[in-house]
Each structure stands twice: as C-alpha cells, then as structure tokens.
C-alpha cells in the first residue's frame, strides 16, 4: 500500500476512487508549517536560516500521515503543480524525515494538471523527484516577503502612526493605485470639437462621415480646440458640395486569443461577470477539484494558477473535434493553433486554463453547477474552444469624400464594417474596460452602397464640444493587467495582494473602481520618499525575474537574499535618525493636492481659515493623519484628511464652527464642527461640552437645527414598557442604532428608526429579541445560513450570522469569516481551514509576539489556498494557521 498526499480533502476522496485499494490518499489541508508570526523567524546573520513551526491542527494531520507511512510501501507527494505546491511536498517530506518514519521507503513526486482519472493515472505512471530549484524559489520568496514585512512595517508604525503594514508586492501595487489618483488630481481638461456630416446617397440612403482634413491639412485627434474654429469649419461644410473621391472595401481577418491564464481569467470574470479576483479563484478552485456529475466527482477545468497559454496536444485535438460537432466544419481551421506566452518565465503550471473535456459543454453540466459556477465554466469553455476556431472574416469599407465650398475644401471619411464570417466570434467575444477597443472594433456598422465620383446630398452638419477626461481609476481587473505587464507579482499572488489592500483599508472599492484611502496614500508617499528603490516598478519586476531564474536553476537563492538584505538593512538603519517633522514636511509637499485642495475663493489653501495666521499641515495622531493648525492650542482647527471614499472630506474646507441655533433647555449654542474623526455636533464649549458624531450617511451640508437637536438629545425616551414599567429608549452606539430596555439591547434597522419608532413597534422588537434565547435572556444560537457537511473528526459544520458578522461553526468552535467573504460561497475546505486556525489559538503565553509584529507576518506573502484566513495576521496564538490561501 502506498500513501498519497494531496492538499484538500475533496481531492483526496476523488483521487482515492481513481487509484483503488492499493493506495491511501490523505490531505495536508494546504501548508503544514510556516514561519512563526514573530521577529526572528528568518535569521540573516545565520545565512538566512528559516525557523519553521507546525501548528496544532497541522500537527494532528501530520501524525495521521506519519502513522500511515509507517505501515506503507512508499510515499507519493501529489500536491498542486506549481511553486507553492512543490513547497508543500517539500515541507511534508522534511517533517516526515524529522519524525524518522520513512526508513528508506520510496518517495516520489507526481503532478497532474487536471483531476480526471486519465490525468491522475498518467501522472502516477511518470513520477519524479522534488524539484529543488522550485523549492529554492519558494524559500527565497517567503524569506523576502517576511524580511520586508517584519522590518519595514515597524518603521511605518514609528514614523507614520495609523499605518498598518508594508509588503514587497503589496506596496508596489498600492503605489500603482495611488499614482493613478495623483494623475487624476493633476489632470487638466482640454476642450476639443468633433465635426461630422450626415449625408445621403442618390439612392436615398443616409450615413455619417467624419471631418478628417481642412484647407489642405490633416486634422489630428482633438486638433479642433475651440468653438471659434469649429464654427468656421461647420460653416464651410454647411455650404459645400459633396463628391465621393474613392471607396475601398478590403477583407480583414481577426484571430482568436489564447485560452485563459490566471490573470486573463480574473480580468474577463471582472469585466463580464462582475466577479472579484478572489471570488473568481474560489469558484475556479471548486471547478478544478471537482463537482458531482451523475454520481461521479469530476474535475471540470485544469489547474487555475498558471501563466501558460498553451493547451496539451490531446486537448487541442478534443477541442477541434468539439468545434466540428458544435459549430460545423467551416469553423475548424486547417491547422491547429499554437500560442506562446508573453510572460518572462511561465513556470507556474505550463498549460492554460481549459475544460478537462470539451464535450462537456455548459448546457450539459448546467444542472450540476450553481449559478456562479456555471457562469465561470461557460466563460472558460467558450474561451478555450474559441482559441482553436477559425478566424473571423470582416469586410471593412472606407469612403473618402471631398466637400467643396467655393474653393475651400475639406475631407471627410466614412468607415463601416460587416462580418462576412463570424468564426471564433460565434463562441466568444472579448470585452474590455475603460474605453478600450473590443472585438467588434470602433467602426460603424455596414455602410450603404456608395460609388466613387457620385454626388452626395448634405442632410445635417453636427458639431459637438468635448473635454478630455483623466485616466480612469483601476479596477481589480485592470490593476492585475498592469501588474502583469510590469512583471510585478505572479498568478498565485494577485488575488491575495488585492485582498490585503482591502483588508488593510488602504483602498476602497466603489462601482468596481479602486480608490486609495488616505492611509494608503500616506504609506505610498512615505515609501516613495524614504524607501524609493523598494517601491520602484523596475526593481520589483527585476526581483521577480530573479525568483523565476532561481526556479529555473540559474541563480543561487541565498545569494539573491544576501544582495537584497545588504542594501535593505542599510536603508532601514538610516530611518532610525529620521524625525517625524522631516516625514511631515515631505508628505505635505508630495501630497499637496490631497492635503491642501484649492479653495473656491482663491485664497491660500495652506493658511488656516479659522485664525487666519496659522499654517495648515499634516499632523499624526494615534489613529492616523489629520490636518491641523500650527497655532494649536490657541487655534484648535482640525480637519479629516479624507472621507471614506477618498474624496475631500465634506465640510473640510468650511470655516468652523457653523452655528445652527440654541438649545432651548440649556441655552447653549449648537455648532457643526469637523474633527479628525469626521463631522460632529457640539453643544456648548469646553471640556464638558456634549458631542455627537454624524451617523453614517448623514452629510454635513444637510444638517439643520432640527436634526442637530435630535442627534444631541439622544438617547431618546420612547415610553414605558407595558409589562415591566421600565423606560424603553433608542440611541446610536458602536454597533449601530439600538433599543435599550432593562439593561438589554435590540438592534434597529436604520438610523431613522432611532428618531421615529413608536412604543408598540419597540415592544415587539424587544419581545422578538427575547424569544431568540432560552428563557428570554442572553443571546440564542442563530439559525444556520448554510449546512456544509460533516467535519473529518465528526460533527456538522454550519455557516451562521452573528452579532459581529457571519461565521462558521463546528461544535464549540466559531470562526469569523474574512471581511467581504460571501457566507453563501464558503466551501467546506475553507471552513475547515478557518476552524483549524481558530482551534489552534491558545491562551497568551510567554514569548508571544506583539500584535503589531503579528500583523506584519503575512505581508507580501504568496499564498493561494483559502486555508489561511485574514485572521492569521492578527492571531494571538503562538502558532498561527499554516495552510494555503486560494
């Protein structure tokens, strides 16, 4: 009997069926050990020795694997076919060697790109040894990310309070987002005009032609820069006679693109389906590991972390047969298509993402998949089969027209196209973001019959004013595309990097666009000022290339670390003498458009509007940066740096305080103010003044006397409970609007309910809350949102919604879902990982890392399985979770 180690229990169950009784397949649940989340886990002074640690959950699994190996004939390591998968096999083997259970038994490594019976059996027939250069590349990447996170993040904490962390890839990705925001702020819009003519042929057909030349000069894009010039050209065309100079129709072929890579799949899923990068990878993981189809678990797609664009020869043959079957002979080209990758070193998993069987069309598997799974599978299947289909044949017609107004001449052009044969477009059409040209091109549709030398009748002249627009903000898809173009990050890191930026609250997402938060911009400006080299695009790309060269066996990984550490450590040491005033001076200049926005009255934006003499500047507080006056404490003017969506804080440029009226009971003035934590209402002055922050969704410009009085008067007495005789009141607390009665709380749906709810409704809500718990006291167990199945150790795993958000539950273990995670999308593998991470947390012990040190532990880390939740970074246990992210 041979022991086979894979990563997930879902794969273990399926592969065990394929291999039969001669094999025992066990799951490692991703990584079995990791660097402890504390300083000193990588030792540069000891030639970068790395101290690994196995957490309690992984220790139990490794004991099961070790016990099985003791009584086996050999060990087969069958983890994923990429750098991270190779590392997991290496870790498992190293732990087993330390346990001394192998005793000379055969150890082989196998990889398969798809979880199908044929792929697995073919892989088992061709075992190999562990790829040492690939493991070395993993070790180098892990050490680099650790050294950057644990050395650069503390600098931020000391010099830039409120900043959370920095990372090798994370910080460069953040710089891309911030640089784009700076471009937008500094963009100066320019006026331009477009002029076209609606013309009619002698046969009565109308079409539109654009002005492209005037008075012997070609007009470039946006060359008509003002209304005066546009008016002159419009007058010329209004009185002109029109003659067709030439008509040219030429055939054009459009070829399909290659099958998906990790990044192109994430981009297409974002553009077409609205999926985030992490959501795309979660769904793809399920499709890869297998779904139940007619009683058999089958992997529907090949491995989803790859930068390769080629398909296996047998897959190409299968695609060509499916093309004939699904679309007809004409749609299959004479020769198969072969693609070459644009990546510098496509080493992750060489084959592109494709269906494991092209005869499993989306219609045939639709009933076995949920809504999101079928959407993504449909995308992968169509792109895969389109990559082997015939070219689209398009006829593009161009008509050149002369307008003559008493010797003044202008040239116009009409362009149209028609698809003569749709080819691959019958299966898949591309969709781009931000105004990029799509597969259909930017030409108009079919032009009517137009003949050379014939006269045309003018119907109408259109002259339209436009203004240039700033470059668009990045979406997740376009940021991934840009990172790939620059050579920053690799397929397994894109989703994790974007998730880190969101989790650290360095960026927010609004209408799928990434907007840098003030914290993110401050961190980027600081790094650009004092760690310039380490956020440069070329430097980061060059380091990625070195890691790829390590994986190819061309560079020594320890030497790469030595070269990096020498300069990096020196830079860290230089910041020890850096004064906070130097930091603020640099940030004031670098972030001037953000810190000192222009004022409508044209006054100096750096002069305090309250005292009129103080200079405004960034200030650093315990909770981050804000803008304050240099005359403090005589002048206590402060302003939030930005609001949550990255725009200038509402009311930030107004004089403070704004008088709203007088409290009729106390006689004190009510004022609207803006502080470092946002706008608020204040009654009276001095230390004893009562203050109330504006609730979420309330804008300062909409606050009047009535709203201010209602807010400052909270809590609001509603009436006495008819049974207890005790007062019921409403208010707004840390967790939102609430009802209070006899020391117990009940949530309200909205802030407006606080001011409008009546006694009857309040009594009903209190009763409903009491009925949720046994005996009317305490908090009952929430109903399950989703049943996930049985835990390997027995007991049901469920998803529930609690006071602090959704969580997974098993027995007495409750593990909160990561921020933004859809509770309906959680998989059993992800739930097991969260439970394992939660269960591994022990009471505080000596030697425990400080919370800030732990927060840096996962920065820049190339993780790939959902088994390493966000909670790991802040775990209070000595041993954090050691499994992979998806």
Automatic annotation (TrEMBL):
Keywords: DNA-binding, Isomerase, Magnesium, Metal-binding, Topoisomerase, Zinc, Zinc-finger
Domain of life: Bacteria
GO process annotations (BP): DNA topological change
E.C. numbers: 5.6.2.1
Interaction with DNA: annotated segments: 165-170
Gene Ontology MF term list: DNA binding; DNA topoisomerase type I (single strand cut, ATP-independent) activity; zinc ion binding
SMART domains registered for this protein in UniProt: TOP1Ac, TOP1Bc, TOPRIM
Annotated active site: 303
Residue intervals of the Toprim domain: 1-117
Biased composition (Low complexity): 854-866
InterPro entries assigned: Topo_IA, Topo_IA_2, Topo_IA_AS, Topo_IA_cen, Topo_IA_cen_sub1, Topo_IA_cen_sub2, Topo_IA_cen_sub3, Topo_IA_core_domain
Domain Topo IA-type catalytic positions: 131-572
HAMAP family documented for this protein: Topoisom_1_prok
The protein's role, per its UniProt record: Releases the supercoiling and torsional tension of DNA, which is introduced during the DNA replication and transcription, by transiently cleaving and rejoining one strand of the DNA duplex. Introduces a single-strand break via transesterification at a target site in duplex DNA. The scissile phosphodiester is attacked by the catalytic tyrosine of the enzyme, resulting in the formation of a DNA-(5'-phosphotyrosyl)-enzyme intermediate and the expulsion of a 3'-OH DNA strand. The free DNA strand then undergoes passage around the unbroken strand, thus removing DNA supercoils.
Name of the protein this chain belongs to: DNA topoisomerase 1
């Amino acid at each position: 009997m041979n022991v086979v180690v894979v990563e997930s229990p879902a794969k273990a169950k399926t592969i065990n069926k394929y291999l039969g009784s001669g094999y025992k397949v066990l799951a490692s649940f991703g990584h079995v050990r990791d660097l402890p989340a504390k300083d000193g886990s990588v030792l540069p002074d000891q030639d970068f020795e790395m101290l690994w640690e196995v957490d309690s959950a992984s220790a139990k699994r490794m004991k099961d694997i070790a016990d099985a190996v003791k009584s086996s004939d050999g060990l087969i390591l069958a983890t994923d076919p990429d750098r991270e998968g190779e590392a997991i096999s290496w870790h498992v083997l190293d732990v087993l060697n330390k346990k001394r259970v192998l005793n000379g038994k055969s150890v082989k490594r196998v990889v398969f790109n798809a979880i199908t019976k044929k792929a697995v059996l073919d892989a088992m027939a061709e075992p190999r040894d562990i790829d040492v250069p690939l493991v070395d590349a993993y070790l180098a990447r892990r050490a680099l990310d650790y050294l950057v996170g644990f050395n650069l993040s503390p600098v931020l904490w000391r010099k830039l309070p409120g900043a959370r962390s920095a990372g090798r890839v994370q910080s460069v990705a953040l710089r891309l987002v911030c640089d784009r925001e700076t471009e937008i702020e500094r963009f100066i819009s320019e006026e331009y005009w477009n002029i076209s003519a609606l013309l009619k042929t002698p046969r009565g057909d109308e079409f539109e032609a654009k002005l492209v030349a005037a008075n012997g000069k070609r007009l470039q894009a946006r060359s008509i820069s003002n209304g005066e010039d546009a008016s002159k050209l419009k007058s010329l065309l209004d009185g002109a006679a029109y003659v067709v100079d030439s008509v040219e129709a030429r055939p054009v072929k459009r070829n399909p693109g290659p099958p998906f890579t990790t990044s192109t799949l994430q981009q297409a899923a974002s553009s077409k389906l609205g999926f985030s990068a992490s959501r795309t990878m979660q769904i793809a993981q399920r499709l890869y590991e297998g779904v139940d189809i007619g009683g058999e678990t089958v992997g529907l797609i090949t491995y989803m972390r790859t930068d390769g664009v080629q398909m296996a020869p047998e897959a190409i043959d299968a695609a060509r047969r499916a093309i004939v079957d699904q679309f007809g002979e004409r749609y299959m080209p004479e020769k198969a298509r072969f693609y070459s990758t644009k990546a510098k070193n496509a080493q992750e998993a060489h084959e592109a993402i494709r269906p494991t069987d092209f005869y499993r069309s989306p219609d045939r598997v639709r009933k076995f998949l949920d809504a999101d799974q079928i959407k993504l599978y449909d995308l992968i299947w169509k792109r895969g089969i389109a990559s082997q289909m015939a070219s689209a044949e398009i006829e593009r017609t161009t008509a050149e027209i002369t307008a003559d107004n008493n010797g003044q001449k202008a040239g116009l052009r009409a362009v149209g196209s028609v698809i003569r044969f749709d080819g691959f477009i019958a299966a898949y059409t591309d969709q781009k973001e931000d105004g990029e040209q799509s597969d259909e091109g930017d030409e108009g549709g079919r032009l009517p019959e137009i003949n050379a030398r014939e006269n045309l009748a003018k119907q109408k002249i259109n002259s339209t004013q436009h203004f240039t627009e700033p470059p668009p903000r990045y979406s997740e898809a376009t940021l991934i595309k840009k990172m790939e173009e620059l050579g920053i990050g690799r397929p397994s890191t894109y989703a994790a990097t974007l998730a880190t930026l969101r989790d650290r609250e360095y960026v927010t997402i609004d209408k799928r666009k990434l907007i840098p938060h003030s914290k993110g911009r401050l961190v980027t400006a600081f790094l650009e000022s004092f760690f310039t080299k380490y956020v440069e695009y070329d430097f980061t790309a060059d380091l990625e290339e070195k890691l790829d060269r390590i994986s190819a066996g061309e560079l020594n990984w320890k030497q790469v670390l030595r070269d990096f550490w020498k300069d990096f450590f020196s830079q860290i040491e230089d910041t020890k003498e850096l004064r906070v005033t130097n930091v603020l001076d640099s940030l004031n200049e670098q972030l001037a458009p953000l810190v000192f926005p222009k004022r409508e009255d044209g006054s100096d934006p750096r002069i305090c509007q309250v005292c009129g003499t103080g200079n405004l500047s960034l200030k650093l507080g315990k909770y981050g940066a804000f803008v304050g006056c240099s005359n403090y404490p005589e002048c206590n003017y402060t302003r939030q740096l930005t609001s949550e969506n990255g725009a200038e804080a509402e009311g930030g440029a107004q004089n403070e305080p704004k008088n709203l009226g007088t409290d009729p009971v106390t006689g004190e003035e009510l004022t609207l103010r803006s502080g470092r934590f946002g706008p608020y209402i204040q009654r009276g002055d001095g230390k004893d003044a009562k203050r109330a922050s504006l609730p979420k969704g309330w804008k300062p410009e909409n606050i009047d006397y009535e709203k201010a009085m209602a807010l400052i008067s909270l809590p609001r007495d509603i009436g006495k409970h008819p049974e207890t005789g005790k007062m019921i009141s409403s208010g707004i607390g840390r967790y939102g609007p609430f009802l209070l009665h006899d020391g117990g709380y009940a949530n309200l749906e909205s802030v407006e309910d606080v001011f409008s709810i009546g006694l009857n409704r309040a009594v009903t809500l209190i009763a409903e809350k009491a009925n949720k718990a046994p005996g009317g006291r305490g908090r009952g167990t929430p109903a399950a949102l989703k049943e996930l199945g049985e835990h390997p150790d027995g007991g049901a795993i469920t998803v529930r919604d609690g006071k602090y958000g959704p969580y997974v539950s098993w027995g007495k273990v409750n593990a909160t879902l990561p921020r933004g995670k859809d509770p309906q999308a959680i998989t059993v593998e992800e739930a097991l990982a969260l439970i394992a991470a939660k269960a591994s947390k022990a009471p505080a012990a000596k030697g425990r890392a400080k919370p800030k040190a732990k927060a840096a532990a996962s920065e820049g880390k190339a993780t790939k399985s959902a088994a390493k939740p966000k909670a790991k970074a802040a775990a209070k246990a000595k041993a954090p979770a050691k499994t992979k992210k998806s």
